Amino acid sequence: MVVSDSLTVTKRNVIKIKRVPDVLIFSTLSPIMFVLLFAYIFGGAIKVPGLEGGYREFLVAGIFVQTVVFGSTFTGLSLAEDMQKGIIDRFRSLPMAPSSVLIGRTVSDVVINVVSLVVMSLTGLVVGWRIRGSVLDAILAYALLLLFAYAISWIMAVVGLVVHTPEVFNNASFMVIFPLTFLANTFVPLQDLPAPLQIFAEWNPVSALAQATRDLFGNSSPVVDGSTAWSLEHPIATTLIWVVIILAVFVPLALRQYRKTVSR
Length: 264
Fold this sequence. Notes:
Blueprint: H1 2-19, H2 22-42, H3 54-71, H4 73-85, H5 87-93, H6 99-127, H7 135-163, H8 166-182, H9 195-202, H10 205-217, H11 230-233, H12 235-262
Helix pairs in contact: 1-6, 2-3, 2-6, 3-6, 3-7, 3-10, 4-6, 4-7, 4-8, 6-7, 7-8, 7-10, 7-12, 10-12
């Protein structure tokens, strides 16, 4: 029952994207804008030695990470909108598994991230990014990005269920996501950061994901990847550990908060 109900909710959310294409359009335009701005405005000022494609090759993996993390916010935003419009109350009146609402919502947001990654990959190829690793490693990189985004979706689900309104959710989520995505190695090498921020960035899960993505795409530079932090020496393992921790903590929290919300 949970599986069939979750698939039904997922289908409902995907159809909603089709009927409201603005969501998909603006979710892909934003990362394209970031790539073009950073590649052509800052690309000449930020030097990344050791990479054939220079800063642009370093940049695209970071944009991938930022894109999927921002894409995970649709979970919380959609839940807040559904509560505000009374959709959650309709779900409560139906003979369906309560967990299927959250599972369907988080899975459908993977679809948005898949489309965003396809668009981002094409944009990256245009500005000079290339996959220099094996096909299997590239597939693993994309899978790791989607897996991490799925885990973050459950954090956003908790936030969306707590704040109740889309406006408050936007402010609350950005206060978390902006520090995580910018105080990391997403856009600049870590050695360019002040010492206190560098320590934070080394253990930031976003940095581990960005480093893992670069390694798997073959975009790493031994010149700029000199951190001795365990998290960046083993970025794939670190990312998987963070995914397990996030899911173990926030899946039960989200389910508990959902039951609490619908019982009011």
